[in-house]
Amino acid sequence: MTSDSIVLCAGTIPRASFRERVAAARAGRFDGISLRLRDQARARADGLSDIEMRALLGGEGVAVAEIEALTAWRPGLTPARPEHGESHVLAIAEALGARSLSVVEGPGPPLPVDEAAEAFAALCDRAAERGLLVHIEFWPGSALDLATAASAVASANRPNGGLLVDTWHLARTRGGTELLRGIPGDRIMAMQLSDSPLVDEPEADYLAAALTRRLMPGEGALDLVGLVRLLDFRGCLAPIGVEVCSERLAAEPPETVARRAGDAARALLSAARP
Fold first, then answer.
1. Were both Cys, which of 38, 47, 59, 195 would link to 215 (CB 3.0–4.6 Å)?
2. What span, in angstroms and rounded, lies between the C-alpha atoms of 197 and 209?
3. What angle do CA 85, 86, 89 make, to 5 degrees?
4. What are the phi and psi torsion angles at 209 (to 5°)?
5. Model pTM greater than 0.70?
6. Cα–Cα distance, 255 to 13 (Å, whole number)
7. What is the DSSP letter of 78?
8. What share of the chain is helix, strand, coil (3-state, %, to 5)?
9. 236 and 179 in contact (C-beta within 8 Å)?
10. Which residues contact 16 (CB under 8 A, 6 or more apart)?
11. How many CB atoms lie within 10 A of CB 110?
12. How large is the greatest C-alpha to C-alpha distance in the chain, in angstroms?
């Protein structure tokens, strides 16, 4: 997948089944989808094997861009469920032919960079054996905020390791765009676009807002065109994901939402790359 590819992120149609997700991606003319771990588990419960899932994807010309998300990625961390452990998550990603895997850290003070870099480098090496990229999704208040995540990625210095830039999180990171200017474009390995009103301070209940109140690209006040141009200038080749987590949209038919999301992504890219 390239910077011209667009990805329908799982959070945009969170209630869709696997079949509905693939059909919605085709309806919205997306090149790929992201999958959460529970999406694969639900598909298995619905009677689909990994081979059947790959056949369905291939038949519709849809790729799995990324698997979201590995949280128990550092030594000593215990996954919330056994199936969320690293070996299982890597196996899912490989079985479905995924391009990449996201790493997310919970809230807390920033991790020591040396500790984070060592753990991330080791994870990248294990993922590389399966042909996978690994990217950290930073967010303000996380133990891997942008500054910490960028330093850990740089220190780990693995060709398959980088960052995922989510515009909701970036807009709420103090000095986020300036920090981004100092990161090599090839270290930005995934993007997730959504819009929002202008941000003065992060919301009091940050995660609740992030999971329910996003807007389609172009419906808010964020400079998404400028961001795409900045990352293009820096040499970023990551595909463009659309992740609009919204209670209102989640209640609508997946194909309807996907068409709107696909149109919004193409309009944004046309404006950024005339």
1. 195
2. 12
3. 85
4. -65, -45
5. yes
6. 9
7. -
8. 45, 15, 35
9. no
10. 24, 254
11. 16
12. 49
Sequence-ordered strand ranges (E) for the chain: 6-8, 32-36, 63-70, 100-103, 133-137, 161-166, 188-193, 240-242
Taking only the tens of pLDDT, the chain with its 274 residues reads 988 999 999 999 999 999 999 999 999 999 999 999 999 999 999 999 999 999 999 999 999 999 999 999 999 888 888 778 999 999 999 999 999 999 999 999 999 999 999 999 999 999 999 999 999 999 999 999 999 999 999 999 999 999 999 999 999 999 999 999 999 999 999 999 999 998 887 788 999 999 999 999 999 999 999 999 999 999 999 999 999 999 999 999 999 999 999 999 999 999 999 8
Amino acid identity for residue 274 in this structure: P
User: What count of other Cβ atoms lies within 10 Å of the Cβ of residue 249?
Assistant: 21
Beta-carbon contacts of 203 under 8 Å, excluding residues fewer than 6 positions away, are 172, 209, 210, 213
Token pair recorded at residue 123 = 């994870």
Radius of gyration of the chain (CA): 17
* Residue 133: other Cβ atoms inside 10 A: 24
CA torsion through residues 39, 41, 42, 44, sign:
positive
Instruction: Note the Cα 104 to chain centre separation in Å.
Output: 10
